[in-house]
Amino acid sequence: MAKLDKQAALLLIVQALFGVANALSGTFVPVYLWKASESYMLIGWFTFANYALGGLTFWVAGKWVKEHNKMNSLRAGIALSGLFYCAVLLLGESAKSWAIPLGGMNGVAMGLFWLAFNVVYFEVTEPDTRDRFNGWAGLLGATAGIIAPWLSGWLITSMQGEKGYRLIFTLSLAIFAIGVVLSFWLKKRKAEGRYSWSFGFRQLMRRGNPWRRMFAAIMAQGVREGVFMFLVGLTVYIATKNEAKLGMYSLVVSFVALVSSWAVGKWMRPNRRLLGMLIGVVMIAIVILPLFWEINYTTLLMLGIGTSMFIPLYMIPMTSRVFDLIGATQESASRREEFVVLREAGLTTGRLLGLSAYLIVLPITDSPQAITWLLMGVGIVPIAGWWLIRPFLQEQRDTKYNHASDGRR
Known about the structure:
single chain, 409 residues, mainly alpha, Growth Hormone, Chain: A, 16 helices
């Protein structure tokens, strides 16, 4: 497998710093809002604003990234993330009154960063290096998840709440600042072409376009993410009433994710994506089953460990195959910004659908059974995503096999 170049390695470092800063504080923002409000609905609308404004930012900022300086979008995203935590820090307990604007602000920050990141990621990797890059990204993300939330939970508990929250939000600000500085060593990348606002919509309207199927598969990924990204951590806190235990939970599951991401990154090849992804989507649904027995720290830990073990089998090929499709031809590669926006539109649509289920169910009943059925309902949706993306993975496997057969002849 080909090695990553220096620009790809530097991009991984910037992403890792962004991940560490968010892991330090992001895990605890829903908990912070919960402690101030004890409202599932408030957390839901905070998250809804986050997803909706993040998706909209991708579409609006696409013109800036394509026609101007994409590195400034990346830096602006990091800086705005820092301002988000600064705002939470200054507002204190009154942040609950500003939950929706704060969620929107964080969404804009995430949109600016991930739009630029995904475009640059496409430019600094090739089909032969994307699985390795994604494996390293998962490895570094897991490392951040091991150290940062555990440290945050310990600080919050030992400093008895508010002082601890202030400290971790301040530490996040400092790390974001370092990330901005390091980003200046990433080369300014040439802007090419004109941005088309309706490009993604036209792809979906065209019969036989592979993006119609890929978009639906991406939506399936988003449905699960829309709920799991915040509800599992919040449920751990509600079950334990202890930030240190939430930090320990993140430490354990992130350590498992680190090992799993490393192993999958080493094992995964384009011709292995079909089987690997199937195993991944089935297992991340099965590991939800212990919650039907009882929602407590042990069963939540079983869910977290199981998910961390198997989700790289799903996420690594999913991400790699989407970007392989973007780079399938010179013409599609020239529209990489629009395709990245289209990918995010699929994720955002799926996340909002999953979150809508949360907003419908939780006001009716927030019983453990309701939460478990909600997690199971959205947790099995990626199986449909595998079925939708299967022809792309099959085609890639057969192409690899045919090339190997031609070589033996």
